[in-house]
Amino acid sequence: MAEAPGLGWPESCAAGTSVRTGEGAGVGWPVSRETDPEKAMMTAAMEKSAAMEKSAIRATGETIVSRPRMVSKKMVAPRESAVSGEPVVPAPAEEGVVDGMSTPSWRGRETAVAAGASRAMSDWPRPASCRVITIANQKGGVGKTTTAVNLAAGLALHGAKVLVVDLDPQGNASTALNVDHHAGVPSIYNVLVDDLPLSSIVRQAEELTGLYCAPATIDLAGAEIELVPMVARETRLARALAAYDRSDLDYIFVDCPPSLGLLTVNALVAAAEVLIPIQCEYYALEGLEQLLRSVDLVRDHLNADLALSTILLTMYDARTRLAAQVAEDVRAHFGQIVLGAVIPRSVRVSEAPSYGQSVLSYDPGSSGALAYVEAARELSMRNVRRSLVVE
Asked: The pTM is what?
């Protein structure tokens, strides 16, 4: 057993320790021998996990910050110690600490964003009259529903009154706004097929004051077949919106299904503007020509006021050259109607609907939430330009 008082070692080394020599030994500090193979295996696994996390951070150049997990105390079951076999109850984490990692930036960003939204509340102009905007793209998975919900939430946060009409049989917008839409609930299907007044199905979203939803149920899946023999089947939604008292509304967003069937045609006939979310990938551009042709046909034959007013780039992945190229091509072709805000790929945006929330309330400081707030601000600022054009 070695002792070296002059080098800062303990005066004596406890039993069960030895002096490590050779490569990586440093100055030979005494280290404990690990005699329990199970504990040694766990230690090695933890070290490997930490090394992989550091490698991932170096590769992406980003810092990974975990969001505090909201777990009910009833759901936390005691686990057994790997060493003694005795039950171990985890101690409650301190505020701002998760799994031993400090997360002050998450709470700080949330507070800062909330304060910023409050200060900017009066800065966003409201339109002179209600704007009806159809969000359409026949390609699925480009962010139509996500865009409808989060733009509506962003505008409602700044004082606007917004109605989201869920015209997709999947009812994802209704889910995201936490509005009941199980089978049998009065929905947009009854408005289109049974001539039910729109006012009888509109529900207040729990998340925000001034945010409303006309829900969709699975019954809507058969609406296109049932609408075929009806007179003026393309204008059913337009007539329902015309009969609805929207004097107190600033925006109506119509969330379309991923198709160019009768439901989407109804949405195009009912609106004055079309907003197209475009995923920053090659396939998203292929179907764009067909959608634009459909918009032209509706404008020529059914709705002369229809105009393509806004394009929003979604699911942007800054790590790929393809995303940058698609964004550049879209801006070069469509010019000023493309919003400056670009929605990045974000896990928070995908997680929010499972909690019945928009990403703006689920994680206000996330990159997706900040991007949608900026997109909503740009959309509202176009109210001023529209007013100047009218005058």
From this structure: 0.69
- Quote the CA–CA distance of 181 and 145 in Å, as a whole number: 15
| 266 lies in some domain | yes
Q: In whole angstroms, give the CA distance from residue 246 to residue 195.
A: 18
Domain CATH for 213: 3.40.50.300
Name the amino acid, one letter, at 321: R
Structural domain that includes position 167: 126-390
- Domains in the chain: how many in total? 1
**358 within 8 A of 376, measured Cβ to Cβ:** no
Within 8 A by CB and 6+ apart from 281, the residues are 315, 322, 323, 326
- Cβ atoms of 201 and 191 within 8 Å: the answer is yes
Give the model confidence (pLDDT) of 45-60 as tens digits. Answer: 666 656 655 554 454 4
Ramachandran area for residue 123 (φ above 0: left; ψ -120 to 50: alpha; else beta): alpha
Asked whether residue 348 is domain-assigned, the answer is yes
CA distances (Å), origin 149, targets 53, 117, 317, 351: 34, 18, 21, 14
β pairing state of 79-80 and 87-88: antiparallel
> CA-to-CA distance for 278 and 316, rounded, in angstroms?
10
Token digits of residue 244: 């609805």
Name the CA dihedral angle for 226, 231, 232, 234, rounded to a multiple of 10 degrees: 10
Phi, psi (deg, nearest 5) at residue 332: -65, -35
What is the C-alpha separation between 6 and 12, in angstroms, rounded?
12
Question: What is the per-residue pLDDT across 329-356, written as a single tens digit (0 to 9) for each?
Answer: 999 999 999 999 999 999 999 999 989 8
